[in-house]
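Our consortium's second objective concerns turning raw sequence data into structural hypotheses that experimental partners can test. To show how far this objective has progressed, the report includes one record in full. It was chosen at random from the queue rather than selected for favorable results. The single chain below, 437 residues long, was entered without modification.
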Amino acid sequence: MSEPNDLSAFWMPFTDNRGYKADPRMLVASEGMHYTAQAGHKVLDATGGLWCVNAGHNRPRIVEAIRKCAGTLDFAPTFQLAHPLVFEAASRVAMIMPEGLDRIFFTNSGSESVDTALKIALAYQRARGQGSRTRLIGRERGYHGVGFGGISVGGIVNNRRQFGTLLAGVDHMRHTHDLARNAFSRGLPQHGAELADDLERIVALHGADTIAAVIVEPVAGSTGVLIPPQGYLQRLREICDRHDILLIFDEVITAYGRVGKATAAERFGVTPDLITMAKGLTNAAVPMGAVAVRREIYDTVVGNAGPGIELFHGYTYSGHPLAAAAAIASLETYAEEGLFEKAIELESYWEDAVHSLKDARHVIDCRNIGLIGGIELEPRPGAPTKRAMEVFHRAFDQGLLVRVTGDIIALSPPLILEKNHIDEIFGKLAEVLATIE
């Protein structure tokens, strides 16, 4: 395959554009557990693309569903019209959500799903006569996409610093990362449930009657794989119930089998009022996101509206035919191959493999849940993030794709992996870490 003539036109997202274009690495094909690099070598995908290719690459059922739809119905609007596939996709998603979260609003990405959920929360509070509830509460180190709503409730400073004051009326709870007490935890950390009580501080500061919703990731992914402490999510749910505050789970990463169930809500036994999702919804073959909404919220917004449109919100591509076809085929693939269950079956083997790096050079923590792993490295003095980025580049050149965020290696392989893939992932990581200064 020929080299691109010019790399200058594409402004790459979340990328050191100058560094990349000076030393580019290209992917040109994918199949199953692997990419093919432009240099010609196979690259084992230990990140599921970007947390999103849950059923592996280039799956025939999904590819064929997209191909068939593109040849029949390339686009259909869902403003005052619709098409059958979008209703089928919504019904299929609703069937695997926690009980009661059976109204599905389609978007095109996780970022759009978050902004949609926040707007639905505000619309619901107004529709039920609680219009003073306008505050939105996020969490330090939270990642909720890149829309203005998402970065406002998010808590990653580099995602916020260039863009001004963002949304007003937003506050943040403390994050749950606690290396002093929880380093090298297997599964849910033992310490930290009490950190949910920080919401009570915010309620006392602002008044519960001003707070519309709280949004958290059940497992925080992009900030570096932060696992919820035992009892934390349950405690957060109880506090929200006590103060009549909506609880939103951002499951853009955790939905569709990543933690061994359809949702992290199911895995941890905590049901929020809304769930945001994207990524694994279509196995990333076509961009699509969604928000699962508690029926009472939908009924309140729709039932209390005047004639005509009840929620002035949506996207041109909400429920796009190709995306709906991909979603249906992906859900069928997950079910027929038992991929959610497979994540549970492999969890112990995966956990042992993650923690096999405990004594590797520069490793200060290993953590895991489902088929997610985080390996935290000690930052290089005066050069944070550089050590992990070196791991990223060397691993790729040796045939392994990992994700790095800060000085943390984040792992989330396709759910079709086998034990030999796990052995290869951690064998290569160990070799790479041994060479990094």
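The partners drew two points from this record. The radius of gyration is 21 Å. DSSP finds 15 helices and 15 strands in the chain. Both points have been shared with the crystallography group to help prioritize constructs.
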